[in-house]
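Support case: user asked for a sample of complex input and structure output to validate their parser. Sending the pair below.
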Amino acid sequence: MSTQILIPQLGTEITEAEITEWLVKDGATVALGDPILAITTTKMAIDIEAPASGVLTIKMTEGDLAPVGAVVGEIA
Amino acid sequence: MTPPAARLHRLGGSGPDLLFVHGFGADRLSWAANAPQLTDAATVWTLDLPGHGSAPDPVGDGSAQALADAVARALPDLSGPAVIVGHSLGGTVALHLAAAVPQVVRHLVLIAPAGLGPALDHDFLTAFPVLETPDQAQALLERLVERKRLIAPAMVAHVLAGLQKPSRRAALATVAQALMTLPAPALPDLPIDLIWGAADRINPPPVALPATALVLPDTGHMPQVEAASKVNAVIRAALVAVS
């Protein structure tokens, strides 16, 4: 079973975020809670933590703009 | 003189009221990694303190009491129970607020609360209201965190844009002055969760913290951003406790 990595809800005033930097490589093994992705909104930067342990598959690349709720990667 | 006014934002959700009070120089958006994640467990409110974000600039004497009074005036009639989360200056405001509406506040989550540490970084407080350039702002704001990348150009621009409001710099200087002479606040008879970054350089943790305090390694003055999921877990537990 895989777990999707989503752009989280960031409040009513922020609707999208830029994929700033993947902090781990595609195919890397990550542990629940590891910071794996840096995103930037129009106001601030946030680190996204791994929502599960497993192997990371990256689905959106650095520089992409992703709306809230978008699937940016998967952990299986 | 215009009394200080806070601006309240209801993010939605249902359940106990959960109110987030930001720190000096910040605004309601500083809770982007926390408040929106908790609408499944609470009725979530964020706010802009007087002289911050979208709130008007008058701050009165700039004291935590004056800011808490403004929040209390902005609050609708909450039926309770309520949990207040406060960061830094907001932690001290939360303590005053708990005293102002004691009938509804059941639990406090205080993140690096001002007045409870041994020494606030006066240099930071003095420099923030007079920031002019992106380079200056970047350097100063980087003192807030251990992971420098969290101070993105977007955040620097947001901070500098806020400082362009006509009376904003004077308002923040007044709040900063009050913070520099802040007496240690009294703790109410309420459950309080204390969260502190071990590497906080703005408001370092006291040497003697209660054993129940959550001290986060490799974390600076912004645990709600630097260790968001750990902070959110503490808030969730507080919401369960009051429900």
